[in-house]
Amino acid sequence: LSLTSSIIQLLLLLLNHIHKKLEMCSIEKILVSIVLVNILRLETYLCAKNNSKIIMEDAQEKYKFLITGGYRPKIDTLAKYVVSIRGSKHRWFFGDDHKCGGSIISPKVILTAAHCVCMGDSRIELRSLKPSELLVVAGTPRRLIVTEKTQALKVDQVISHAYYDPETNRNDIALLLLLKNIYEDGVSAQRISLQTNILPSYTKCTLLGWGRIFTFGPIPDLILHVDTYILPTEICKASYIHYGFGMMCASDEDDFEKDSCFGDSGGPLIC
């Protein structure tokens, strides 16, 4: 790793020089910051390559909730159903603490994944985040920009499934009860109907979210879509070791790069 470390150090020096010497506009500063962050992440990743166990565990976690290969429709009719679940206090700027997506299922209830609102790697260690630690943002497809339609809502109660298992992802479902109702105008925010029927294999569905556009990559400002297909149970069982009753899986068998990624968890699969 000596050569890799030297290259990374050289790149860091170069980027630091760019910061000091160039009169950059804000977008150029953002791009340089993204490069710096991803170089540091690259170093962490490369240093783990010598340990195959770490890489296997990393791959299981990183790619399981892996939106990559996504697109933005000219007219977005689906973003109104989705919310951004965040920490209650941003670190530096609005939207920098996005955790997961969620679906509006009633004016006061958000459906999301339990792993988005729980801490701990086993059932013994498991605890739900406090309502005061979370914020729900609805009414906008933008993560970073506040508009007249943006609704930031406090959480009253966090209800994760009583039998959620973080080791197998069984019962990975949770509800957030809000202190105030979401204002539904049918355009920027709207509740979504829940599917009650079992859908046939290869039904086309759409994932939405603000997850990383590639592993270790940046998080988008504008929500992304990706089209996938519900896969047959036998393929799901062969692909996921913990696949079981009450689960389903979806992908694009012709394009492996189309999938969800960090930050997309908890969002809807709309079919």
Automatic annotation (TrEMBL):
One of its GO terms (cellular component) is extracellular region. It holds the Pfam family Trypsin. It is found in: Secreted. Keywords: Disulfide bond, Hydrolase, Protease, Secreted, Serine protease. GO terms for biological process: proteolysis. InterPro entries: Peptidase_S1 (IPR050430), Peptidase_S1_PA (IPR009003), Peptidase_S1_PA_chymotrypsin (IPR043504), Peptidase_S1A (IPR001314), Trypsin_dom (IPR001254), TRYPSIN_HIS (IPR018114), TRYPSIN_SER (IPR033116). Transmembrane segments: none annotated. Gene3D superfamilies: Trypsin-like serine proteases. GO terms for molecular function: serine-type endopeptidase activity. The keyword Signal does not apply. Residues 67-271 form the Peptidase S1 domain. Belongs to the peptidase S1 family. This is Chymotrypsin-2. It comes from Bactrocera dorsalis (Oriental fruit fly). The lineage of its organism: Eukaryota, Metazoa, Ecdysozoa, Arthropoda, Hexapoda. The gene is CTR2.
